Amino acid sequence: MHIVVCVKQVPDTKIIKINPKTNTLDRRSAPAILNPYDAHAVQEAVRLKKLVGGTVSVVSMGPPQATAIIKKSVEIGADEGYLISDRAFAGADTLATSYALSKALERIAKIKPIDMVICGKHAIDGDTGQVGPGIARRLDIPPVTNVIEVTEVIEKDKKVVIKRKLTSGYEIIQAQLPCLLTVEKEINEVEYSPLPNMIRAAKYESIIWTVADLENVDKVQLGLKGSPTIVGKMFSPPKPEGGIRLEGTANEQVNKLMDLLMEKKELFTLQTTK
Amino acid sequence: MNLSEYQGVWVFIEQNEGEIEGVSLELLGAGRTLADKLEVPLAGVLLGDGVRSLANQVVYYGADEVYIIDHPVLKDYRTESYMKGVIELAEKYKPEIFLYGATPNGKDLASAVATDLSTGLTADTTMLDIDLENRLFEASRPAFGGNIMATILCKKHRPQMATVRPKVMKALEVDHTRIGKIIEETISLKEEDMRTKVIQIVKDVSKKANLADAHVIICGGKGMGDLQNFQLLYSLADSIGASVGGTRDVVEAGWLPHHLQIGQTGETVTPKIYFAVGLSGAIQHTVGMKNSEIIIAINKDPNAPIFDVATYGIVGDAMEILPKLIEQFNELKNHTGGELSYV
Q1: Interface test with A, best of B144, B218, B320 (most A CBs within 10 A)
Q2: Alpha helices by DSSP H, B39-186
Q3: Chain A residues with beta carbon closer than 8 angstroms to that of B343
Q4: Which of A41, A56, A202, B187 has the smallest number of Cβ neighbours within 10 A?
Q5: Domain count, chain A
Q6: If phi over 0 gives left and psi between -120 and 50 gives alpha, with beta otherwise, what is residue A248?
Q7: Confidence band for B208, pLDDT divided at 50, 70 and 90
Q8: Which terms in the Gene Ontology molecular function aspect does this entry carry (chain A) (predicted)?
Q9: Residues A102 and A210 in one domain
Q10: Within a domain: residue A185?
């Protein structure tokens, strides 16, 4: 089975700092990491490979330094990594991103036909979750989003059984291969990389493609030009008035809060259960 | 693309086994405002198997029209079948705005539809408006990082689409006197053509009882210091019958499972009382809780933005305040021999 995982380099939001003057984020303050959901996606592909055999490739769109997350994916256990990197991709929204990645996937499929594409549920810098289903549509394969378990791969029937998270609970879906999955974090634990993987990753040279390396590309659909959405304006939301700031010592503040809450009879009552 | 051909505001009506999701009713409320500004009809788009009887409800909550596709192949939500139905409707009737709930199914559907219609889609919006002068839909969402909102526009493509977070918009009062137009369409799909099958749906009742339905929520942030201090929140929760949730930081740190995360990428909650303890109140968090009826903030930093949304603010060390609060509540209960209950 050939599984391709789409990965993205993102700033680490746990560490990123906000510039208090401009209210925007200081990207320099954050190290770039493999999007955490994508790490789970790579891990799942590696797990499935161990189960049924095959190859795991990863593909990313980004600047040249995004090869770092391809190396990281190789550490987790990916066999090959492709980076599409070109100024023509810059400024892409989710529609243009899914277009570019689908062209890369078509090219990869020529090297080795693809049985499954896995993406993280969303990237932590945009939080949209729109690129995965977009790629599935462009490749005309069924998408299954919010996957929490790949229960079974039935290779001879080219089918896969999946648990998909719902608003409340989950559903069990059977999908034909090839298909595209987007995975939640609970799908697996990202394991510590064994030493041979680390050594291989350190030496690994990603395969880098520009637009010219892809086939049948409609350049109008790439990057900023291919993006129907634009950021109109950024603004601070109207500040709510704020309520009552309680004053005094800790004891005084707590007492005051209790008094205020007890006045809220419409919400909060003390019922004698006897 | 001739933009003026596209008219009207549409809301995708998500239903589960014959019950309309709350977010769809909220979107009819929000969509009504947009449609009135544009002076166009508001339509609900209802797909499923045996869902005709739900059409009236869509009208009672604000729609002028309901587009229905009722077909056995639409019994359970699947991207491929729902997408096909929605795309065919949109291509035929050409709405200018199309809203979906930011639920797993709503986001999945909207992403697929946007791709096929080659149009713009804004994810997880929390504010919707119209720029009347340019007749543009303004879909705003908290931007990554700071306390800032970004308005996303889709100038040259139609429909302008957005997913909208549940529990942010308000549903209208139900009005049984409203009358709407029902437009029924068919779908050319056979079960044999489908590449996915839903084998079983397993409802989780335990999780729902946790946050979405809780009357009182105690939410802790990284300001609690460590996992041991965080446990104090459970003591307060026990004393007042509350559920405990956390910020993204807390979930990332592994102090709580993801389903207890409150905020932009977690749950949106609207309890009667919300305790925000040791959390700064970044917009990614506050979008998920700001509609709570009473918000009590406890934070050491007097400038923390959480105080802007708080009903009552206590500036102080949670480790000092919480034990006193727990003591007070326990005393209150012991004194009267009663239990706190919430209306």
Answers
A1: B144
A2: 55-60, 79-93, 104-117
A3: 266-269
A4: A202
A5: 2
A6: left
A7: very low
A8: electron transfer activity; oxidoreductase activity
A9: yes
A10: yes
Asked whether residue A9 falls in the same domain as residue A117, the answer is: yes
Query: Could you tell me if A119 and A25 lie in one domain?
Result: yes
Co-location of A98 and A163 in the same domain: yes
- ipTM of the complex as predicted: 0.89
A155 in the same domain as A189: yes
* Cα–Cα distance, A145 to B338 (Å, whole number): 47
CA B305 from centroid of its chain's CA atoms: 22
Task: Determine the average pLDDT of the residues in B75-81.
Answer: 96
DSSP reduced 3-state for B13? strand
User: How many domains is chain B partitioned into structurally?
Assistant: 2
Residues B26-38 have a mean pLDDT of 98
Neighbour-count burial of B204, counting CB atoms closer than 10 A to its CB (0-12 exposed, 13-18 middle, 19+ buried): middle
Considering only CB atoms, A236 lies closest to which of B116, B148, B151, namely: B148
Cβ of A130 within 8 Å of Cβ of B111? The answer is yes
Tell me, yes or no, whether B230 and B173 share the same domain: no
pTM of the model: 0.85
Using the beta-carbon criterion (under 8 Å), do B313 and A128 form an inter-chain contact? no
Stretches in chain A below the pLDDT threshold 70 = 13-28, 238-242, 265-274
Binding residues of B: 247-248, 261-265, 278-285, 299
Contact: B340, A269; criterion CB under 8 Å: yes
Kindly tell me the number of DSSP H helices and DSSP E strands found in chain A.
6, 16
Query: For residue A131, what are the domain limits?
Result: 2-221
What one-letter code names the amino acid at A155?
Answer: E
On whether both B227 and B147 belong to a single domain, the answer is no
Chain B closest-CA separation from residue A185 CA (Å): 9
User: Of the candidates B165, B193, B221, which is a domain's last residue?
Assistant: B193
Domain span including residue B148 = 3-193
pLDDT at B330: 87
* Cβ pair B314:A254 closer than 8 A: yes
